[in-house]
Design goal:
Blueprint (H helix, E strand, L loop, with lengths): L4 E11 L3 E5 L5 E20 L4 E5 L13 H9 L3 E6 L10 H17 L6 H5 L13 E6 L3 E6 L6 E5 L6 H6 L19 H9 L6 H7 L2 H10 L4 E6 L6 E5 L2 H14 L4 E5 L2 H4 L2
Parallel strand pairs: 4-5
Antiparallel strand pairs: 1-3, 2-3, 3-5, 3-6, 6-7, 8-10, 8-11, 9-10
Length: about 280
Amino acid sequence: MAQKKVEAFAPAKINLTLHVTGQRADGYHLLDSLVMFADVGDKITAEMAEETTVDVIGPMAPGVPTDQRNLVIQAAELLGVNAKITLEKHLPAAAGIGGGSSDAAAALRTLTTLYNIPIPSVDEMLRLGADVPVCLEPDLTRMAGIGEQITRLGTGAKWPMILVNPRVEVPTPKVFKALSNKNNSPMDESFPDWFEDDQALSWLVAQRNDLEAPAIKVEPVIGTCLEELRHSKGCLLARMSGSGATCFGIYKNDAFRDQALAQLRRDFPKWWIVPTEDCGAKGC
């Protein structure tokens, strides 16, 4: 069998907004979320093989399963192909930034390229997880419903940002259980011009993450993360991503971002703290 390797970047998914708008009879929650992708993430490498295996390397490898629990293996099974897959893990697990889903989407891209087969339908991808379809392309995207309603919005604003995770895992079901109101308003439909930074930021500030308060109840340290970001000089907005525990800060310019980054790393050396910006804006 000819050996051929294909690589793909699996960027962190950041929920700039996350409005919980309802719950279906089958228990699935309905969302309305604006999603961007960061220039930090994992890397997938795949090559043809007689059976599927996953080798997990990188700084966040410890604890990542290499059996059927890993969505990368499930992606190969969904496609009906075998491959030797290497997952270079840089994103923390259960962090609200779609690490597993982005890995699965990157695996789908590598494996369909490797075997020259089509990408599965959205319904098929949803079998891997609600966030997998949105992670297929690193565009600014509106994601609604249970993840099946995807509207690509192109390249987002090029904001200097910081991602902060206090190294606690927050189980998504636990956060949704702590959410008292599951029928909230959707996002404001008057989307701004994303290339107008001030206009885009004003719109963004007026939106919400409905899971932020319940996540803080589950893990109060998330509130500490947000306070540290909000009080740092030049921070224009601090919010939690997804169901937590990762939070993001948007800064006025690179200098303020870098100053805050250095201070946070000094004060909280055990936290995961990285600088980032929009992946699509960089063409990654």
